[in-house]
């Protein structure tokens, strides 16, 4: 996870601290650390939607600079400062989210991690944390989606990521996909007792239940959606309140 003042963080003004020839060294360090925006370019160019989104952002930025008179360098530095402030706030909120999770306040934790994602969507940790909460709330589809977003944004704790995505698939009854995810988790972290236990549970369900019993088992897991457990706009409204608060 990036920290404010981390010069390897491309979203932080500290990443501009390399003078002269050191700028190239700084870029290479960020690429090696997997923190350079260039690391996402290959996947971006393979996706027409992402490429179109990037081009639209560039056009919007150019129009905004024409309106404000801001130079490109001024815009980059301003945005880096804004990103650094957002990263600092999301890091503070994460602590509160962790406390809520430990206390079993899962809806509160969900809102807090959602706010962290709003502030610092580039951080895979926040997506992974919200996936953990989603599993507790039986938001299994959301858990799978959140883990996928986490993996797309970096290789942070991939063993845990694949395990959580496997759990989401397991409770949804997508058992072949669950098995694939557990296998990936064990390849990254051999002998993990939690994954091994869940793998045994998966095989028991797949092998011991009849087709009719499998359907009943999936229904009994009680999968829900965000709309089932939150009032309309509740997550957004509570998140808006957190965005306005000062977080130490």
UniProtKB/TrEMBL annotation:
TPR repeat placement: 159-192
SUPFAM superfamilies on file: TPR-like (SSF48452)
GO CC field: membrane; TRC complex
One example of a Gene Ontology biological process annotation: post-translational protein targeting to endoplasmic reticulum membrane
Originating species: Roridomyces roridus
Cross-referenced SMART domains: TPR
Swiss-Prot/TrEMBL keywords: Repeat, TPR repeat
Repeat found in the keyword field: yes
Name the record gives this protein: TPR-like protein
InterPro entries assigned to the protein according to its UniProt record, in alphabetical order: SGT, TPR-like_helical_dom_sf, TPR_2, TPR_rpt
PROSITE patterns the record matches: TPR, TPR_REGION
Domain of life (superkingdom): Eukaryota
GO function term, MF aspect, one: molecular adaptor activity
